[in-house]
Amino acid sequence: MDKYTIRNAVVSDANSICQIYNHYVLNTTVTFETSAVATDEMEKRIYEALFKKLDKGSLHAIIAGVAQPNEASARLHERFGFEKVAHFKQTGRKFNQWIDVAYWEIIL
Length: 108
Description:
Blueprint: H1 14-27, H2 39-53, E1 61-68, H3 71-79, E2 83-94, E3 97-107
């Protein structure tokens, strides 16, 4: 028998979650939502759930590292109050190209 791992959702899961969830939105009465949920909306919901789950008493800051370019991720982080604090050029190499990495931070 295969072993499965159950874990918390992360923002990069948003598109897959939308595909599953939207089937139920459009074809069942499991949810009372009537319009398909866009990936960016699901990303927002995941981040909102994360912030509710965090124990702000034990965390002072959250730092997010994002491969660049990624305007969608930049907008998402900034919408939640993150500030871009660093941009490192040509940090890694993948698919025959150099990749920059930028960092966003929020003080809780």
